[in-house]
Each structure stands twice: as C-alpha cells, then as structure tokens.
Amino acid sequence: MLYPDIDQHMAIIVEEGVRVVFTSAGNPATWTARLKEHDITVVHVVSSVKFARKAEAAGVDAVVAEGFEAGGHNGREETTTMVLIPMVRDAISVPLIAAGGISDGRSMLAAMALGADGVQVGSRFVCAEESSAHPDFKQRVADAGEGETLLTLKEITPVRLLRNKFFDDVQSAYSQGATIDDLKALLGRGRAKKGMFEGDLSEGELEIGQVAARINQTLSAEAIVDSIMTEYEVARMRLAHLKPFTA
C-alpha cells in the first residue's frame, strides 16, 4: 500500500471484479472495509503480533504472518517464522497463513504444526518456468549458496537481497554514515524491476528469501506444487510413526 497511485489501483481492483486481495506495507484499516463492501476477500501481510491484531481488528478475512527469512520487503522486528507463527496463532482467531522460509513439503508441514492454516510460498516460484522473472535472475537464485542474502535498508523499507554491486554500494554508504536521504538517493526508482525483471545482476535489487540456498533448478509451477504436496505427505507419514514421548 506504499505504492504511488494506490487509489487508482484499488479502483481498478473493484472495477475488474478481483475476488481476493492481499495487502501489505500499510494500515489495513485504510482499505479493508471499502474492499469488503464489494465482497472482496482481504488478506493482510504482517511481521508481528501487534500488526496481526490490528489487521484482525480492521476486519480482514485472514492474516499472512511473514518471518524474517522471507525475500523482498520484511519486518523490522527480525522475528523468524518459527517464533512468529505460534505467537500470532495465539493472538488472533482468523485464518493464519505462514510465510517466510517455506519452500517444500517439510517446511509446509512445520508451519502447520506451529499453528498455520495454510502457507504462502514466494521465493520457490521465482524459479518457476512460468515466472516473469528474468532468466538471468532465476539462474542467480539457483546458484545462490547459504548466507548469500541479507536484510538491509531498514531505515527506508527493510528488504532482503542477494549480494551484488548494488548491495555492496549500500553497505559502503552505511560505513560512510549515509543519511536516510542519501540511501533514498542511492536506491532511486525501479531497482527491483531492473534486477529481477530486466536481469541487471549488478545494479538491480535482487530480492529473494533465505531459501534461495535450497533452490537449484527451474521447474514448472505444476511440478513445484506436486513436489511440495508429495514431500508434505511423506513428512506427515514419517511423523505419524514417531513413538510418543515419555518422560
């Protein structure tokens, strides 16, 4: 909801009859009631218990709780998915969708065990054949190793990025005592588009989650979903055969 021309975006959503809207990066009370007047299901993305409660109070139909591991824009609290999901589950009664670090059936099952009703998977689908991401960005994600993403630009809007020249320029600016205005000037406009959709792996923002280290190939969306569900069932059956804990 921080994007320019948000009023126009919302008007188009209503005009075109969009049935489900996920909102983020703003106050859910601003648009939720208006969208629901048009029978639109509203889901709001949060990174803390505080904002999960605010989203529920605003009347959303469900909440996405996104942990620190996630790609793209993140919460300043740096709360991991493992910690965040059970806290949010205990705080709200509306359906809860877990996000951040979920890329396969095992992590999906773990999220369910923590109290989630469903999961949101982002980074894994960057490397789907149908993804609109640039092929060079997809390959960079597939090549990424452990620890290659870091959260930065917290003074503006926290974002998790792969290391590249732009990321190094940001770190250099920090070391030289850059102000918020300096960081905004360095960021400019269209950095994410330049990196992820135009394939500029040097000067663009390369937004991706920590699970990039676990992604090593591009598959069809169908194959990714089938794999996740198969892994989920295998993991669920394995847990079903664990012996009960006894003191």
Q: In short, what is this structure?
A:
With 247 residues, the chain is α/β, with parallel strands linked by helices.
Notes on the structure:
The protein is an alpha/beta fold. It folds into two domains: 6-121, Alpha-Beta Barrel (TIM Barrel), CATH 3.20.20; 135-214, no CATH class. Helices cover 42% and strands 13% of the residues. It has helices spanning 6-16, 32-36, 49-57, 81-91, 105-113, 123-126, 135-143, 165-175, 180-187, 191-197, 221-240, and strands at residues 20-23, 41-46, 62-66, 72-73, 96-99, 118-120, 149-152, 159-162. The protein has a five-stranded parallel β-sheet. A three-stranded antiparallel β-sheet has the order 4-8-7, with helices on one face. Strand 7 (149-152) and strand 8 (159-162) form a beta hairpin. The termini are far apart. The model has no long low-confidence stretch (mean pLDDT 93).
Question: How does the major sheet shape up?
Answer: 5 strands, parallel
CATH topology description of the largest domain: TIM Barrel
| Number of separate structural domains | 2
Query: What is the C-alpha radius of gyration, as a whole number of Å?
Result: 19 Å
Helix-and-strand structural type = alpha/beta
CATH homology group of the largest domain:
Aldolase class I
The secondary-structure element order is HEHEHEEHEHEHHEEHHHH
Dominant shape: globular
Tally of DSSP helical segments: 11
Query: Helical residue percent?
Result: 40-55%
Structural features:
three-stranded antiparallel sheet, 2 domains, globular, 8 strands, TIM Barrel, 247 residues, five-stranded parallel sheet, alpha/beta
